[in-house]
Amino acid sequence: MIGMVLAVLAGLPTPQDTATLDAPVYANEAYGVSLPRPFPDWVFEPGSGPQTTTVIFHPRAAALREQLWGALVLTTFPGEVPLQRVVESRVETTWRRRLGRTFALVASDSLGVSGLPALRTRMSGAIDHVVLDVDEYAIARGGDLIILQLRYPRGLPRDSIEAGYQRVIAGLRIRGGAPVSPAPPLAVAESVASAQVVPPTGWQATSFDALVRYDPQVVRVDFAVTVDLVNQGASPAESVAVWVWPAFVVDSMRGDSALLPSRSSGSVSWVRLPGAVPPRGNTTFTVHYHAAGTDHLPPRLMQLSTRGAFAAVDWLPRVQPALDSTFQFVRTPRPRVTLSFDLPDAWRAVAPGRLTADGVSLGRRHVTWSADQIATAGAAFALGPFRIVARSEGGVGVSVWLTAEDSPSSATVDSLAAEVRTAWLFCSRAFGRLPLDEVDVAVTGTPEVRGFAGLLLVGHPYGFAVDSANAEFVPASADVARELARTWWGNSVAAAGPGSAWIAEVIPEWTGAAFRGAIEGDSVRQRLMQQADSAWRSLPSGMDLPLSQVPVGDSSVALLRSKGVAALEAARRGAGDALFREALLTLAVEHRNDWIGLADILAALGATSAAALRTFLY
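The structure assignment produced for this chain is given below.
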């Protein structure tokens, strides 16, 4: 019997009846399953076979051959559903055969849907010359199997389709399940803190107000982060999942000065709110946590010491997933971020945005930085007994934050400030001016140059050596331009969806090469592009991936900075230099403080350039 059911499931779902249901929700009382349609102009086509009920939903006027549709499949097994076996059978007997040589299994992970065990599979390929991605959820409820299939034709903007499909997933109701369906965090490399995710829920963060208190004598940092949330789900919610770095210790959760009960599972804490928050309702609570010492902190992302401290990314708590199941950035609201610091009176703090308060009281310095005009994707900061050396010329101010151990000559500071100012003006001409006229450069312990919104964190050998026997270093111009470009690409404009790792990394990298070409001549730019192409072609074959599938993470940087730059250079040649630069400028201006995806870039580049780029992306 199980074999017969699997054989039925091996075929693509096709409704047996031709009756069309034009209704907001499809409901099957026998199975106790209901499903909303993604958009008002979509219809359902339900049908019943010997062992299955199949429902296809699609735009009212669209043909199924366009591959823009979803399907709900309901069937019953004689015993417990062998979920893993069912999914493996569908991948091998349905998708691999149907997609043929174009088949690619992009991702597979386990999760919970309505409190029931489920497996999610993502595949890509072409059907009847239509290239598409397919997300398929297989859900088990005892002996009942529910399959939800969602199709994304690549010729259409994925973002708008995905918004409708998210309504389908959020509105799926299964008898015996729960309205809210938390998924456990996906397993990712520990070295990539940004890959940590929280269970997908309906919560959206609108602002973070963080107070950071640092005690260098005991090397301890305490955080109190107030999070404003909106319930974007379809049902009232009584709890919220909060993720913090595993190296941090959560002290308490508070709302309106009262403790909130919580339970933890790994790095995720489930917080019980004082009452149910209705759809579109707001709530606020504060997360108190700390880090003491540096034994468990990722050294590239955060360092604490008696001489100073810095944090690069992901130290704020997370209430929404950062990545999807293919480890690409997901599109979430851009919350407002305000950072306040409580420090020893001789210390200072620098962060993205503008310094809005700085004063000393009772032996402690209180500093506030607010990022209100540029939506920052990463809330970095640097702390220490800094002295500030300011340089201003041509309408751009550069402030270099130096520690007591750094003693550069005036000429070296002038050289660094000139590099930063020239690269900032280059990026402003290439991507449009931003409401910032001050760039901060903080010398910290970071082992590389790291760029944020109007902020560079630099460390040795990019910092300055106090020992006169050592050379005084200035960051290479390409590094400065690359990291300053992240003010535009990564902060003002953030990437989401397939290829988001490539978008986030390659445009800043290409900017560094283009900047050197503008300063040193086009032959230098061409040489750098050739070096990138050679580096990509010399990578081991196992490291190569289509750029739309490269996951976010440290291990992907080499591929993105080689093949990614080669891809962007191919797009530039296809479009021509003038049109290519116009496309980048238009994208940066039109998507300011917003998200961008592959579809936006391909549309802006034009048909010839997009065709050249697609060979690298897919």
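Interim note for the steering committee: Confidence is low (pLDDT under 50) at residues 178-196, 465-470. Residues 2-174 form a domain with the Protein Transport Mog1p; Chain A fold (CATH 3.40.1000.10).
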